[in-house]
Amino acid sequence: QVQLVESGGGLVQAGGSLSVSCRYFGHAFSSNAMGWFRQSPGKEREFVAYISRDGGNTDYGDSVKGRFTISRDNAKNTVYLRMNSLKPEDTAVYYCAATTSLFLARVAAPYDYWGQGTQVTVSS
């Protein structure tokens, strides 16, 4: 039984920065790679970022590469997403997810658990 709880969403002006967090409640956080996805109304869920179990490997969606940074603190059972140079098109509900797969996962299917999401709104 695993629960993921996102926090830190809110309203920010274009060009600004925001960090969101995801706390993992359950067994063996360090056995899970973690991902961030986002979804806007009328659009499919989009891959944002991935981090391996030990944080050694990261990957980003093309639309956020160079602006967003994923990190994790295994002692705190928490994964973070730092979002810089935000654009209005970054507005979405951001979800974190956990997978025990050892393969880099840029799609939703390999992820076993999902958080409830946190709203990020970027104003012009």
Q: Over the alpha carbons, how many angstroms does the gyration radius reach? A: 13 Å
Q: Strand share of the residues?
A: over 45%
Mean pLDDT: 97
The low-pLDDT segments are none
Number of helices: 0
Strands, count: 11
The gross shape turns out to be globular
- The helix content, as a percent range, equals under 10%
Structural class: mainly beta
Order of helices and strands: EEEEEEEEEEE
Q: What is the end-to-end distance? A: 40 Å
Main sheet specs: 7 strands, mixed
What does this structure look like?
- By secondary structure, the chain is mostly beta strands.
- 0% of the residues lie in helices and 48% in strands.
- The protein has no helices and eleven strands.
- The strands form two sheets. Strands 2, 4, 5, 6, 9, 10 and 11 form a seven-stranded mixed β-sheet that branches.
- It is globular.
- 31% of the residues are buried.
Keyword list:
124 residues; mainly beta; 7-stranded mixed sheet; 4-stranded antiparallel sheet; 48% strand
Short description:
Helices cover 0% and strands 48% of the residues. The protein is built from no helices and eleven strands.
